[in-house]
Amino acid sequence: MKLTLKIWRQKNAQAKGRMETYQIDQIDGDMSFLEMLDVLNNQLISTGIDPVVFDHDCREGICGSCSLQINGEPHGPDRFITTCQLHMRKFSDGDTIVIEPFRAKAFPVVKDLMVDRSAFDRIQHAGGYISVNTSGNTIDANSIPIDKEDADHAFNAATCIGCGACVAACKNASAMLFTSAKVSQFALLPQGQVEATRRVLNMVEQMDKEGFGNCTNTGACEIECPKGISLENIARMNREFLTAQIKG
Amino acid sequence: MSITSNLPQGPLAEKWTKHKNDINLVNPANKRNIDVIVVGTGLAGGSAAASLAELGYNVKTFCYQDSPRRAHSIAAQGGINAAKNYQGDGDSTYRLFYDTIKGGDYRSREANVHRLAEVSGNIIDQCVAQGVPFAREYGGLLDNRSFGGVLVSRTFYAKGQTGQQLLLGAYAAMNRQINRGKIKAFNRHEMLDLVLVEGKARGIIARNLVTGELERHSAHAVVIASGGYGNVFFLSTNAMGSNVTASWKIHKKGAYFANPCYTQIHPTCIPVSGDHQSKLTLMSESLRNDGRIWVPAKLEDAQAVREGRLQPTAIAEEDRDYYLERRYPSFGNLVPRDVASRAAKERCDAGYGVNKTGEAVYLDFDAAIMRYGREQAVIQHMTQASDAEVRALGEKVVESKYGNLFQMYEKIVDQNPYKTPMMIYPAVHYTMGGVWVDYNLMTSIPGCYAAGEANFSDHGANRLGASALMQGLADGYFVLPYTIGNYLSDDIRTGPIATDTPEFEAAERSVQATIDSLINNKGSKTVDSFHRKLGKIMWNKCGMSRNETELKEAMAEIKALREEFWRDVNVPGTAHELNQELEKAMRVADFLELGELFAKDALERNESCGGHFREEYQTPEGEALRDDEHYMHVSAWEYQGEPADAILHKEPLVYDNIQVKTRSYK
User: Fold this and answer.
1) How far apart are CA B647 and CA B655, in angstroms?
2) What pLDDT, on the 0 to 100 scale, is given for residue B591?
3) B644: helix, coil or strand?
4) Interface touch A56/B240, C-beta < 8 Å
5) Which residue of B has its CA nearest to A42?
6) What are the backbone dihedrals phi and psi of residue B192, each rounded to the nearest 5 degrees, phi first?
């Protein structure tokens, strides 16, 4: 198929960016979206134009590197996938596709379509762990039985890949879904109880410091999340947060 | 340079304990004055960094990704082995040790593998304590499943995302230390050289991938945990950025590279769909617990399927060839990966392949869906359940076990694997070879260590499923933190290592020269075009089966391609900015050297063992034929400039505790 691509180009964090239009031909439906961009880049290089920079790595939907806003939607039109899992068969010959970086104050553009998501790392530094040494001298793994349902819910929360689609989808650029997924994983497990109070307070504080917006419960994050992380996690974090504040 | 493996004395089962008791320790006050660099933040690097920082060392981590959490360990699907014997099915440390040695086709070190089996149980305890949400049974205890090449269920898992959960555990442990200031994480940084001072590893040159600046970082020891080199094949299940650069740079500075030809070709990957393909996707080996592998038994059926005239579901049971069950009745679909891959290639080469390219076999869940469905019908007292109801119940069970994998398959192939069998074909997945290390995981350069997939140590010529995660975490959590202290105990009075020295200066200048020559080359061909060509040579001539003639051709072709690369590659942009083409070019340049050494190693090893299959050495039934008399050794290569000139050092492998046999899964 033949496509028109409108792509955000920005030389670096300080430069002013703008949309550029490129034509591309002979795109096969079995190609992934990123393979289509590979084709474009080789075409640009051969005509002396700098290739488009974008984050990507595993190309199987798990590392969370890829991060494009495609026709206004994080990770494009399909559900429960990342950009690298989006295939060109979802588009038709003659389509115009608009490709932008994830937009949020807390995710400054590094170059072209690549953004800086280190704010997510700093939220995790603030408390996204259980304080146990890695000596291996802990109790036997089977000494604490955990309700299968709790374990499954904890797992579902833990499958967050940290891509930032939730932030990009939110009109407030809120990071509540991301932060609440980690808080929930530990809140649902007995191992996480000891530090529960400190964890939620510290992580929420860091989230606010990073300049993410507030949550107004529109639910856009849940719809765009490639891993289907549920809004329940936000409710759980709010509960944890209130309890923690009362406890002080 | 030495090639002594430094194995502790004494009985096998006591070596590690005794060694830990004998080695030197560093007191906590002194640890605060010692710096360690860790390159790579996957399971091995992440766990090592966290553990070393906890002990009190000052750690600096480096990864090319924007966050340590994105290292490619994240993509490991199936599970992690541990000899817990929670199932009471006869598992033990010895059995895990034995299975691993046998699975590796008697080409790994007894003492290393035994240590791995010994600490395996601790890994599970550790991960659960960190809040890793492993799969559980209704009673609340941990669930296990079975993997290829073994007869017990010892694999712990978190759906098809075990690697993700374990890596997030290690990343969380890192975060705790980052928060305490004990780890400084240099993300979007790539190590481009090792700096030696008086023969010891004392630092690295790294490029800040955002600004393009070269940086000097010093330390008292350097750990390379940068993963494997499967991307030398261009198409593999590795991440796009996975590379050999850190390992290759230390090789060029004196670290021996061991068994480069030992590559794991994984049997269950989604087949190649066209020339545009940029990477391959694995379908977890855990699927072989429930999926049955087959091709049509009649050539005319296979042809009709390829031409789209016949649907696989329309082929009668008696017209299907479940070739693994036929050839290997005792292990069936759960034979080790090397055996399963070769068997698939054999059927496809014989004309029974089932997709357009003729390079695919079926992985069929129909029998499992019906079996689980009937089980569920009994549990739910649905005595009159129709076939459709049974199928629906069964599909639910299969979804709960493998849902994310089925979804991944459907997104890529656009077919529903609940209704029609999956198509799979072998693809490059893991490299058993790697940087040579001694028992302490130290390379042949003092103070330079290698951990995880980057080293060669534990899997011999073939790795068993769910053992990579085990080895990565064992190295990082439980081995390095002890053994590195033994070396660093001599460094307590060294003080900080200065970076304004001639050694750092020279290393930085040489990196700068390489970058400049690539940027200024202004050739006519893209980096990708060279990488694809290299991959074709590797896959066709150094892939699932190899022979002398083609390996010699491969060496010559790779050398010629390397020369062409330096003459004609086009790297756009400048060095002083974020430049992804330059990053790729630096990595491909190293693959173009490694590839030739790989072929040389395969050529030199005149036997078939594990993932290394030489057509000249096979039994009349087509099984691998080892030559223990001449090749029961590790091949450790010393760099001499041109890869073809590398010098071979042999480390003999001694088996005192198990009887070396012909590997049989019949």
Assistant:
1) 26
2) 98
3) helix
4) yes
5) B526
6) -120, -10
Within-domain flag for B443: no
Q: Cα separation of B301 and B310, whole Å?
A: 7
User: Is the separation of the CB atoms in B465 and B149 below 8 Å?
Assistant: yes
Closest to A122 in 3D by CA, of A57, A54, A212, A14 = A212
CA distance A106 to A115: 10
Q: B530 and B401 share a domain?
A: no
Of A42, A120, A154, the CB nearest to B528: A42
Low-confidence ranges of chain B (pLDDT < 50): none
Choose, from B337, B463, B605, B626, the residue flagged as catalytic. Answer: B337
| Closest partner CB to B408 (pick from A61, A131, A132) | A61
Tell which of A79, A112, A133, A134 to mutate to test the B interface (max B CBs under 10 Å).
Answer: A134
Report the C-alpha gap between B102 and B96 in whole angstroms.
Answer: 10
Nearest CA in chain B to A111: B578
Which has the closest alpha carbon to B581: B536, B531, B511? B531
Residue B635's CB is within 10 A of a number of other CB atoms, namely 26
Closest by Cα among B238, B210, B213, B214 to B226: B238
Q: Choose, out of B138, B157, B179, B569, the residue to mutate when testing the contact with A (most A CBs < 10 Å).
A: B179
d(CA B83, CA B154): 6
Q: How far apart are CA A203 and CA B631, in angstroms?
A: 56
- Same domain? For B405 and B532 the reply is no
In whole angstroms, what is the distance from residue B268 CA to residue A163 CA? 27
CB A179 within 8 A of CB A170: no
Does residue B617 lie within any of the structural domains?
Answer: yes
**Count of all residues that appear for chain A in the document:** 248
Q: How far apart are CA B237 and CA B277, in angstroms?
A: 12
* Domain final position from B368, B398, B428: B428
Sketch out chain A's domains with CATH numbers.
3-111 (3.10.20.30), 117-133+143-247 (1.10.1060.10)
Contacts of A56 in chain B (CB under 8 A): 240
- For the segment A132-160, the average pLDDT, to the nearest whole number, is 94
User: Any bridge partners for residue B62, and if so which?
Assistant: B39, B186
- Decide if B166 is inside a domain: no
- Helix, strand, coil percentages (3-state) for chain B, rounded to 5, are 45, 15, 40
- Domain membership of residue B401 (yes or no) is yes
Mean pLDDT of the residues in chain A: 97
ipTM over 0.95: yes
Residue B289 shares a structural domain with residue B398: yes
The range of the structural domain enclosing residue B284 comes to 267-428
Our answer to whether residue B154 is catalytic in this structure is: no
A229 Rama class: left (phi>0) / alpha (psi -120 to 50) / beta? beta
In tens, the pLDDT along A16-37 reads 999 999 999 999 999 999 999 9
| A121: nearest CA partner in chain B | B67
